Amino acid sequence: MAATHFAVLDYVVLIGFLVLSAGIGVFFAWRDRRHGSNKHFLTGNRELSWLPVSMSMMASFLSSIAILGLPSEVFLRGSTIWTGAISSSMAVLVAAFVFLPMYYKMDITSINEYLEKRFMSTAVRNIASAVFIVQTLLYMGVVLYGPSLALGSVTGIPVWSSILLNGIVCTFYTAIGGIKAVVWTDVVQMVLIYVGYIMVIASGVYNLGGFGNMWQIAGDGGRLIFLNWSTSLYDTYTTWNVVLGWTIGWMSAYCASQTQVQRYSSMKSLRRARRALLLNIPGVALTLLLS
Question: Where do transmembrane segments lie in this chain (predicted)?
Fold first, then answer.
């Protein structure tokens, strides 16, 4: 029977990851201590390479909501959700060839800065900033609650304590290390996420007696529904609503999200930014496949 509580090694990995995340922030704060400008803090002086930034883009959307939620959605409602890879691909292409050139031409680091220039109004910029802050606060509440609840179920740590610990660590390395610390912490997170996915899949295949048995069980449970062309309003996921609806959602993230625009502006050329963005097409598809 699989263990339902953390062993010593599990605690070592957990604490080690938190310490590593904080350490990345300390490292960049110390290394760049003589570069105290806002531009260096927010954009890394546009010195970041395209590969880590691309991984950071993916990590910004691979929150606990996706990691914990996607597998359960597939378990409950089938695999139609994989067509979200088509949606994300369409959104990335629009962002890479329509929005990205515009952002680089205007030399902006904030989507709110664009709104101010577009409508020639600081009021519009302030309203957009306020909306983004409220949205982020609500979103981060859910993102922190998910893993804290899961962690509490196997460690006995109170949910509020886990939320507080994770929030403090993330705020710490972001506040002192800037965009460079955020990007490289995201890289570490992405590696751990993919390793975790692969280990869970390998364990499942082994315990179920091989890939063939696993596939058969999934099919018998009605979970291998890759395409659902139903037009019923009562189906949670259909090919239609995932491809069309999710495209709009992904476009809001890739084309007009401050978290992404700031990452775009951390690279020194449009070509590198576009390369980083296009790598998200196979990256998101792989994530959905593993889920």
Answer: 6-30, 50-69, 81-104, 124-145, 157-179, 191-217, 237-255, 275-290
Q: What is the DSSP letter of 210?
A: S
The shares of helix, strand and coil residues in the chain, as percent rounded to the nearest 5, are 80, 0, 20
* CA 172 – CA 165 distance, rounded (Å): 11
For residue 102 the two structure tokens come to: 């515009």
The 3-state DSSP class for residue 152 equals helix
Which segments in the chain show pLDDT lower than 70? Answer: 1-4, 36
CATH of 8-290, one of 3.40.50.360, 1.20.1730.10, 2.60.40.1180, 1.10.150.50: 1.20.1730.10
Return the closest-CA partner of residue 275 out of 83, 55, 109. 55
CA-wise closest residue to 104 among 270, 254, 261, 267: 270
Q: Is 45 left (phi over 0), alpha (psi -120 to 50) or beta?
A: left
Q: Rounding to the nearest 10 degrees, give the CA dihedral for residues 33, 35, 36, 42.
A: -110
Alpha helices per DSSP H over 157-264: 159-207, 211-220, 239-240, 246-256, 258-264
Q: What is the pLDDT of residues 38-54, one digit of tens each?
A: 778 888 888 899 999 99
Q: How many angstroms separate the CA atoms of 64 and 43, rounded?
A: 26
What's the distance, Cα to Cα, between the start and end of the chain in Å?
Answer: 23
CA distance 280 to 277: 6
- The model's pLDDT over 66-100, given as tens digits with 9 standing for 90+, comes to 888 888 888 888 888 889 899 999 999 999 999 99
CA distance 62 to 197: 12
pLDDT at 185: 95
- State how far the Cα of 94 lies from the Cα of 247, in Å rounded to an integer: 10
Candidates 279, 274, 287, 283; CA nearest to 95 is: 274
